[in-house]
Amino acid sequence: MKKLHVGAVAAATGVAVVLTGCASGSGGDASTDGKPTIVVDMWAGSEDDTTALEKQVAIAQEENPEVVVKLQTAPWNDFFTKLTTNMASGNMACVTGMSGAQLGGFTDGFRELTTDDLEAAGLDFADFNPGAEGILSFEGGLYGVPFDVATMLVYYNQDMLTASGAASPEIGWTFDDFEDIATAATTDGKYGFGMGMGGYQWMSMPIAYSGKQPASEDGTLHIDDADFVDAASWYSGLVTDLGVAAPVASASDTGWGENQYTGGNAAMAVDGTWNAVSYLNNESGFAAGMAPLPTGDHGNSGPILGSGYGISKTCDHPEEALKVMGSLLGKDAQDYIASSGRSYPARTESQPLYFDSIDEQYREQVKTVFESAFETTVPLYMTKNWEKLDSYIQPNLVSVYNGQMEMSDLLESAQTQFGN
Amino acid sequence: MTITTKRRGSLARSEARQALGFASPALVGLALFTIVPVGLSIVMSVYDWPTFGDRTFNGVDNYATLFTSSPDFWPALRNSAVYTLLYVPLSIALSLVLAIGLGPRIRGRGALRVLFFIPVVVPMVANVLVWKMMLQPQGLFNGLAQSWFGVTLPNFLADPSWAMIMVVAMSVWQGLGYNMLIFSAALEQLPESVLEAASIDGARGFRLIWSVMIPMISPSIFFATIMTMITALQVFAQPQLLTGGGPGNATKPLVMFIWEQGFTFGDLGLAAAAAWILFAIIIVITGVQFAAQRKWVHYEH
What we know:
The structure holds two protein chains of two kinds.
Chain A: H1 2-23, E1 31-32, E2 35-43, H2 47-63, E3 68-74, H3 76-88, E4 95-99, H4 115-121, E5 137-138, E6 141-142, E7 145-157, H5 158-164, H6 175-185, E8 191-194, H7 199-210, H8 226-240, H9 256-262, E9 266-272, H10 276-280, E10 288-292, E11 303-311, H11 318-328, H12 331-339, H13 351-356, H14 360-375, E12 378-379, H15 386-401, H16 407-418
Chain B: H1 2-45, E1 47-48, E2 56-57, H2 61-68, H3 73-101, H4 109-121, H5 124-135, H6 140-149, H7 160-188, H8 192-200, H9 205-216, H10 218-233, H11 237-242, H12 254-264, H13 268-296
Antiparallel strand pairs in B: 1-2
Helix pairs in contact in B: 1-13, 2-13, 3-7, 3-10, 3-12, 4-7, 7-10, 10-13, 12-13
């Protein structure tokens, strides 16, 4: 019987080893018919997304007949988990999609792009939206080139503003205007503004107010900078001092401000340009509008955000991969992204096509607001431990908004814990 | 005689081989999804093991880091302890009261039991949504308090002193039906003759419950206590969904800390070490409970 036990364990281990071996893949990109295969890995949540990506990949294939371009996709929620696994096992696709917000945790997997690399890809940041080079940059290194750009806007419920007699936000409005509108719209148990809990949603107003960022380009944290602290304290004061926003109910309400806005409980909220179309066609049926972030004493410096492609460090054919990436970010592919209305393209000459895809009734508003907002955007700098900082600040914001903690104490404590 | 023994021996071997054949898929599953991960997590806990990049052996450094320099570990340990100390006695006591209350004299007790069991089978996300709608400042409780009594209630889930109480309250409500069912089943099994004898001896009401019924169902109470304690120490979904571990880290239990270290911060070594500390705590407390059971659990009727 002892022999049998040993045999059973050996058999089980053998099968386990075989299965584990099967799961780990070959690593790198295989060759097909003598042509190198360049895998493009990107998130896609629906058939439409996949079809759109297939069209872009077809453009890249046509422009690069010397390689076989292969697309692989995963839904947004799974993409970064799969990417982590692929990176850990050395199977990261040669051309990999990346969002500016997530880059900090994945720089180890990406090749740092040089001027020669950009030249090999046929890409020049002069053709892209100003500030686009900062989107997939981290601590001074460039890890990718964006295919779309985004920034933060103030969205407003025109019906609520009209009913309360408040003015509407306009291009060029100031923080004083913002306070006046928020105060006038706070009536009948409704509030003028929905407080942001997400990193971009809460941070972009203090950045615009003070003209300061919580980190420098080289990845140094200075979230306790006096001007930024003052601006952030003004922001939390919208609940605690001015009373124009509701206190947040729970730290798990990560989309509090945006939900308050879509639910008709708040007249204004800050969110990204990526939600512009869905807010205009909102399910609640209210007339929605949008405006750039208010202008502070230092101008209007909203953060520029976006997603793009980078080359994996482990890619066996980096030269070919760079060319494929160049095609995916080239004029034809960018024109396609813009004219299908999927997102606001990073390449400047393709941007007008995006507005043509918007419903005619909203087209002019979206066009003028986008153009104005993107004119003054600045790259958002982050630190290596940004995730930890974010996960420390967010649950404490609830206490700040509820008046149980001072914003200055929170930011100073964050600096002590996460400063370099 | 010798021939018969040999035949039996060969039969046993052949049956054992067949049994092994049938069991092998389960063994492979056990090896792949239990033994290998458990073994790997022990190894991980003594390594600096980032999600990607080089892994380096660091002995007991992860354990030392947790106890000496990790700002969230002690609060998480405290939160798990507070949650367990509040949740287990409350859940056991209330389930017992409910099970006894829904005794044979209650009409429609089957339907009532189903009602109390519904929160157990309803997905946690739905339960949490309902509780959030009741507890938030614009929610049901505050609305009623303001309109009926003119009193403004605290922002329960955002107040550090209330948040944990609300997580416990919601968890007790959610898990009440499970233990109630165990106790109800045990109460149904009580021999009529013993209850009758106790009643003839003059035991009534609380005396009957305390001196006769509870000692007789003590094995069920012991089982429920052990299982409830283990699930309480492993709590994750309730605070994650209801309070996000906040405000600050006021409701972040040990499992949420482990999850955050492993999957948000990518420090698998530290997460594995914290998981083994949790394992050790559960084993020790369960061991103590088993040792203590001799004094209060009665297995013979």
